[in-house]
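dumping this here so i dont lose it
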């Protein structure tokens, strides 16, 4: 392939990805995070436009990522030979934003790129907009989903809507580094988006019947088929290979190593008492006399994890705080570390308290929080300042669901997981904010773990998902955190 139209020089693996997928109507770029799949899609789009095949693109990405396409990816990588305009979807636009979105209907002599967040397709307004664009521009258009696991649930409104909308586009692309984050069933909707029957099955249930082992279960009057195992995975791997390009960082980039370790943290007597009560009785009575109950299993697991972090929400909705050795352990780790660091937690309260502690212990302004409550205008400043080696912002404290996608945080070579969750996708995504092109040092990942608790169960669950995903993709399971579970609570 000629490289004359590239704005930024591609790596060899990016050229190979383009050679394989450039002219195909549907294709998947299953490129591990940090290998430059966004650039590949932009170059693919530019190439098709210069060939006269495409003059419109609908790019869809998660809410925390789609602005990045507008602000960074397209300006950085779109060929200077391509006259283009970029329009961003806004759910509740002001007059200026409304006028910008409406401009999509005006004639344009070049390439129009319309960027939407995938969550919009769960709404009537978003679905209507997508259907309109498919009808008016689809014949000479491309539709692409960045982080396509966002449509892995075949029953979700947005998955159904996007499969329907995609059918109206001449070219369809999916992008993800981790297509299998829970089970092989994750693959169906993503590849069905590329076209009906892409993986050889005419329905989800035919797909499940081919690749899953199920048993009939009853819960009261309701009967259902429960997946208890998988089969024919070599065949599924071959089918995926036929319509996608897969590459891992270790195979194409000379990046430093990832180093995994755990820091074991004990509980206070108060925490141990509360943890045991919630685990055994799904409830605990606080010293203040307030009651905390966990009637559902998922709530019970959540409450157990909150205890480890040092906070609980009572049945009356009040947040109660109590001492935790976890915060002390985090402070000790940061005392031992000279450079910049990222601290991840799933809990809003943790993020607020960690940020306050770090600013108190290490100097005001050294830590910033990046989570749902962080205003949009502050987010870019936080990332820019963190990436500036001379700026005093040293600690990035974030929620993986909000900050784990699309950001480059390569100034950090230490990542601490204060409170994990069971979501493999957000774990992998958040890990690779620091471990990507531009990282010059080994990156150390430290998980704070309390022995014999939900912490270890989460790690076990994530490891199992890593192994099944590797099997479907025909790979060796990645090296990851290896705990030696301890039976006794500390």
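and the seq i came up w/
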């Amino acid at each position: 392939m000629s490289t004359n139209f590239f704005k930024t020089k591609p790596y060899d693996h990016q050229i190979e990805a383009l050679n394989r997928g450039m002219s195909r109507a549907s294709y998947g770029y299953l490129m591990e995070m940090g290998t430059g799949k966004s650039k590949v899609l932009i170059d693919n789009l530019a190439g098709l436009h210069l060939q006269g095949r495409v003059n419109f693109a609908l790019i869809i990405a998660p809410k925390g990522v789609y602005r990045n396409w507008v602000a960074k990816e397209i300006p950085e990588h779109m060929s200077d030979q391509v006259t283009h305009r970029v329009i961003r979807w806004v759910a509740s636009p002001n007059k200026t934003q409304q006028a910008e979105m409406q401009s999509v209907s005006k004639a344009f002599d070049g390439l129009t790129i319309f960027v939407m967040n995938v969550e919009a397709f769960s709404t009537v307004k978003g679905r209507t907009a997508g259907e309109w664009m498919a009808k008016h521009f689809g014949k000479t258009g491309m539709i692409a989903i960045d982080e396509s696991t966002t449509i892995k649930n075949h029953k979700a409104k947005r998955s159904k809507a996007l499969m329907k909308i995609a059918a109206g586009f001449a070219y369809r692309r999916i992008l993800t580094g981790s297509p299998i984050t829970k089970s092989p069933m994750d693959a169906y909707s993503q590849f069905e988006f590329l076209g009906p029957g892409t993986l050889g099955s005419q329905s989800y249930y035919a797909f499940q019947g081919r690749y899953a082992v199920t048993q009939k279960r009853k819960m009261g009057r309701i009967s259902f088929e429960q997946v208890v195992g998988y089969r024919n995975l070599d065949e599924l791997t071959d089918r995926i290979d036929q319509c996608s390009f897969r590459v891992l960082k270790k195979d194409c980039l000379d990046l430093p190593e990832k180093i995994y370790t755990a820091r074991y943290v004990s509980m206070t007597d108060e925490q141990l008492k509360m943890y045991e009560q919630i685990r055994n009785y799904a409830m605990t009575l606080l010293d203040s006399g307030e009651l905390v109950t966990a009637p559902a299993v998922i709530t019970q697991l959540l409450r157990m994890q909150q205890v480890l972090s040092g906070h609980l929400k009572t049945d009356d909705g009040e947040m109660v705080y109590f001492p935790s050795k976890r915060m002390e352990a985090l402070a000790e780790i940061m005392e031992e570390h000279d450079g910049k660091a990222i601290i991840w937690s799933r809990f809003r309260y943790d993020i607020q308290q960690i940020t306050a502690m770090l600013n108190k212990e290490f100097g005001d302004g050294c830590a910033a929080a990046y989570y749902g409550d962080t205003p949009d205008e502050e987010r870019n400043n936080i990332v820019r300042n963190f990436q500036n080696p001379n700026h005093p912002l040293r600690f990035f404290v974030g929620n993986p669901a909000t900050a784990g996608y699309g950001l480059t945080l390569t100034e950090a070579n230490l990542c601490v997981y204060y409170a994990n969750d069971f979501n493999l996708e957000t774990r992998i995504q958040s890990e690779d904010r620091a471990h990507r092109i531009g990282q010059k040092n080994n990156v150390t990942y430290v998980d704070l773990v309390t022995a014999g608790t939900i912490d270890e169960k989460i790690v076990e669950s994530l490891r199992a998902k890593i192994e099944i995903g590797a099997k479907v993709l025909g790979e060796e399971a990645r090296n990851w955190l290896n705990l030696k579970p301890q039976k006794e609570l500390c």
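The two ends are 60 Å apart (CA to CA).
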